[in-house]
Amino acid sequence: MHTVFPLLQSSDFPAIVRGRPDTVQVNLGYRCNQTCLHCHVNAGPTRKESMRLETVDQVLDLLRRAKASTLDLTGGAPEMNPHFRYLVETARSLGLRVIDRCNLTILEEPGYEGLAEFMAGRQVEITASLPCYLEDNVDRQRGNGVFEASIRALKTLNGLGYGQPGSGLVLNLAYNPQGPALPPPQAELEAAYHRELQARHGIVFNRLYALANMPIQRFGSTLVSKGQFESYMRLLKGAHRDENLANVMCLNLISIDWQGYVYDCDFNQMLKMPLGGRRRHVTEIAPARLENQAIASADHCFGCTAGGGSSCGGALNEN
């Protein structure tokens, strides 16, 4: 796989400074039951990295000290970490909003029976990857049979109340472009998803998040292999909008990797760009001192500010 960080380091991305962190995003490991072309983590079934129980407890201690409001769980497939349920249970008992970034097909894997019911019972918010409402497009990006499995999983979640009005169970979907292009306007795309998924499959959900593909790890390497890296970077830089800087996710978020080391965001984590310029463990972090710190940046950050903007919560500006 091609290393893309040297291609991103020389950057003119504007300087940004963190506000008060209220979201802690935790990567529980790189193991996943899928291997997706757009994956910025290079996750897959053969990856072994997984957060240990000791580190999970250290993360929980940080959440208490930081007085965070949200725990955002990602991977790989975060549910494949053996301590996933313990972390969710404890975080919910602390009153935190918990988000699970779910690939949907994990709900059908042997050994994960009852996972959907577990999350519904704890009112875990689910953000589910579904890069299109058409079967061919999804299977091309994520593997044969993934679309049908995803639809079955969405129907299971709907049956438990997810996405249903008044249930309190939030089901959001996440869209990624098929290749080196910006996402279309989020509001228009969301309307199409609502219409098509309801008409074709009877599926309902709350919001759609349109996410840009980051030029790092597997997707970045693929761009290099196809000779598309430079043109994609020109696209991102040419579409940069200064007004998106006020809403980028790293202003109020910190990211923790499977070993417990801390970063400004999940993308910086994948590029090994540590928070504050020095590799620090979660046990070394004083939450009160994080505010007003400079955020590490490189050219990949233009992926968050191009066009309508992109974050873990979707577009930053829908105008």
CATH architecture: Alpha-Beta Barrel
Gap between N and C termini, in Å? 37 Å
Largest sheet: 8 strands, mixed
What is the helix fraction of residues, given as a range? 25-40%
Lateral arrangement of strands in the main beta sheet: 6-5-4-3-2-1-7-8
Q: State the fourth-level CATH superfamily.
A: Aldolase class I
| Percent of residues in β-strands | 5-15%
Helices, by number, come to 11
Tally of distinct domains: 1
The low-confidence runs, each spanning 5 or more residues with pLDDT under 50, are: none
Topology at a glance:
Elements: H1 5-8, E1 23-27, H2 53-66, E2 70-74, H3 84-93, E3 97-102, H4 115-121, E4 125-129, H5 135-142, H6 146-159, E5 171-175, H7 186-201, E6 208-210, H8 217-225, H9 229-238, E7 253-256, E8 262-263, H10 266-270, H11 302-305
Parallel strand pairs: 1-2, 1-7, 2-3, 3-4, 4-5, 5-6
Antiparallel strand pairs: 7-8
Describe what you observe in this structure.
By secondary structure, the protein is α/β, with parallel strands linked by helices. The chain has a single domain, classed as TIM Barrel (Alpha-Beta Barrel), CATH 3.20.20.70. It contains eleven helices and eight strands. Strand 1, helix 2 (53-66) and strand 2 (70-74) form a beta-alpha-beta unit. It is globular, with a radius of gyration of 18 Å. The termini are far apart.
